[in-house]
Design brief:
Sec1 family domain-containing 2, 17% strand, Sec1-like, alpha/beta
């Protein structure tokens, strides 16, 4: 079946279905980026309709009472550092017996963020985090679930879907080249931005790019789409290359019936160069 514009704008809603299926009788804690995406897919009302008791900000200053035993956390980030601290804080101040954590970051990127380069069976990072949740709840027999759902798309209109979670992902600029070269030996320095590859970028930026690629792949998977990619600009070329080499994308492209062209364009491409105006006096 051919994909219609209407089907296409339904795709972000599909990503939320997984979350909606888990929120019954739960207090939902959600970070700002996911809340922004949800705003375009039914908002807090959709969570409450699915049976959620309440929706709160993802913050160390929030917690629940004794009569609220279930929590669902929805975050746009890797389960590391500050994100983990906030989840621990909320659980420590509450009385949960059942915690579900949704992250928009796939397990493969969690492995990368933890310096694991081999493919692994199952989801060991998520499994370990489930154990931590039980520890923080204070009973290893309580229930904890950790899973991935790419809840980052906002369907603004039938023709336009945006991803607010990646709003800060900006193309590389000449000063970035200088700071990358400053950390490299003279003979291995890059001449231009076009010489950069994904491995030469800071780890945080690599994680962002891998998240974006995985999120796009989820979208194309739901749309049963096999894409042909085009790129304009150094950053877009790196992102298109990552998508081309993404394992799940390779499998999808073998069988997906719908064809699409994807054009990646660096946002800096529409900036004007230095212009000189001479006033006639």
């Amino acid at each position: 079946k051919m994909l219609t514009a209407e089907d296409f704008t339904q795709l972000p809603l599909l990503m939320w279905e997984k979350v909606f299926s888990k929120v019954k009788k739960a207090v939902v804690f959600m970070d700002d980026r996911c809340a922004e995406a949800l705003h375009w897919s039914g908002g807090a009302a959709a969570l409450l309709e699915a049976g959620a008791r309440n929706v709160k900000q993802f913050s160390s200053f929030e917690a629940c009472g004794e009569n609220e035993p279930k929590a669902v956390f929805v975050v746009s980030t890797v389960l590391k550092g500050r994100t983990v601290d906030i989840i621990k804080d909320i659980i420590s101040l509450s009385h949960f017996q059942y915690c579900v954590v949704f992250t928009a970051v796939p397990h493969s990127v969690h492995l990368f963020a933890n310096n694991v380069s081999t493919e692994m069976e199952g989801n060991p990072v998520f499994d370990q985090f489930e154990e931590k949740l039980c520890e923080w709840m204070g009973n290893m027999n309580y229930t904890a679930e950790v899973m991935h759902s790419p809840v980052v798309f906002a369907p603004v209109s039938q023709q336009l879907i945006v991803a607010p979670a990646f709003a800060h992902l900006f193309p590389l600029l000449p000063p970035d080249l200088d700071s990358l070269n400053a950390k490299r030996p003279e003979k291995k320095r890059f001449g231009t931005l076009n010489d950069l590859n994904v491995h030469s970028l800071p780890v945080e930026l690599q994680i962002e790019i891998k998240c974006l690629v995985s999120t796009l792949n989820s979208m194309f998977e739901a749309a049963k789409m096999r894409e042909e990619s085009f790129a304009v600009g150094p950053m877009s070329r790196i992102i298109a290359g990552e998508l081309a080499n993404h394992n799940q994308a390779k499998n999808r492209r073998k069988t997906a019936p719908n064809k699409a062209s994807i054009i990646f364009i660096d946002r800096t491409m529409d900036l004007t160069g230095e212009a000189q105006f001479e006033a006639d006096l």
